[in-house]
Amino acid sequence: MIKINKGKRFQQAVDAVEEFLRRAKGKDQTSSHNSADDKNRRNSSEERSRPNSGDEKRKLSLSEGKVKKNMGEGKKRVSSGSSERGSKSPLKRAQEQSPRKRGRPPKDEKDLTIPESSTVKGVMTGPMAAFKWQPTVSEPVKDADPHFHHFLLSQTEKPAVCYQAITKKLKICEEETGSTSIQAADSTAVNGSITPTDKKIGFLGLGLMGSGIVSNLLKMGHTVTVWNRTAEKCDLFIQEGARLGRTPAEVVSTCDITFACVSDPKAAKDLVLGPSGVLQGIRPGKCYVDMSTVDADTVTELAQVIVSRGGRFLEAPVSGNQQLSNDGMLVILAAGDRGLYEDCSSCFQAMGKTSFFLGEVGNAAKMMLIVNMVQGSFMATIAEGLTLAQVTGQSQQTLLDILNQGQLASIFLDQKCQNILQGNFKPDFYLKYIQKDLRLAIALGDAVNHPTPMAAAANEVYKRAKALDQSDNDMSAVVKRLWLCPHPPTGTRA
């Protein structure tokens, strides 16, 4: 499982699994020894129930002697027969029963389940009480490591049936729902069990990305206060245990760490500097984490005003889309206050599969724009390829099948192509936002006198798609701009 490439909590979870397996192996050996003893006792009982000829008496005597030698006359142990009847009498009492009772055939061994240990019962209290642990004979749980059970139970809401399935479960995501419901998929499949911070968390902005982030913060046990410009979006999260903040300033003043995720540089500045904004709630020790995708100049300005009031600042834009946000599988790019980055550890584990610390403020903004520039340009190229295939009489589905078998194969490629072929442009990443990121990336290149011709060409295609009222559709709707292009006759050049 390559623990060295994983986080500390993941390594601890794997260590717990390995320790559990070692203990289980030892108990399997003990169980095999006990099973042999039980078989000897049953054979002895059957011999006693038969007519006592001379040879049979000698066999019975030898069998009884073997049982006494293996078990020890002074040890107290529950026999198989008494276990089936729920009795706690020792072996000696079982041996004193009448021949008629000793000769009774044993009941079905399926009743010989191992009782649930106190360590498992402890895990099953509190927020884990919704799970129902169902141990089986092949699944020894007595005296097992409680950390292992917490890790295992966090993988699924269905009863765990075999610990060998953990490796498989780590690679499986929940079904796609596209919903901002609190029942978003569990990120612990990657991160292991999460211990939520005891700090009070605030969150400003419940859009496509923010809704999934807050869902996972609540699901992992964080105390969260929410605010959104459209207050109705807060209702779902209030029902699930979040607190409502009336203004950004109130959220910041009542919370230890406040996250924000809004659409663009103007919205980010208004949130901090506007009436009843974040800046009015900042005082020494208060922490502000901006997760919006903005330019480096904007984030630097916000950092300066926050720090000037004694606050602590971290930028942490996220790479992903609505589905990855719901699944807790975002990639987080952070820069700024390193101590605040560490304080956000449990929050970042809840909302993402990995995080990067990139140094001083502005670095994360630059890296995020470059990432989205590549993504936006790739999406425009995918759309261009599909439309060219259509115009030249080639099957678009066959093109997708070929791409999926080659080096370009990816979930992104497959999902976006399938959406285009099905005419489904429900937003997973708004077209208007990828165009905004392309524009900011081009400006970043201009600031350092570096050409970005591919991004510039893609930006023009998205701008045209926005003019065709595709702003609030998914970025894959850029294909509509290409569908509507006039095509010259085959064999000519435009």
TrEMBL record:
GO biological process, one term: transcription elongation-coupled chromatin remodeling
UniProt organism field: Ailuropoda melanoleuca
Gene: GLYR1
One annotated Gene Ontology cellular component of this protein: chromatin
Protein's name in the database: Cytokine-like nuclear factor N-PAC
PANTHER family, A to Z: CYTOKINE-LIKE NUCLEAR FACTOR N-PAC (PTHR43580:SF2), OXIDOREDUCTASE GLYR1-RELATED (PTHR43580)
Region (Disordered): 21-119
Membership in a protein family: Belongs to the HIBADH-related family. NP60 subfamily.
Domain 6-phosphogluconate dehydrogenase NADP-binding: 200-359
Feature: compositional bias, Basic and acidic residues: 21-76, 93-113
GO molecular function: DNA binding; NAD binding; NADP binding; nucleosome binding
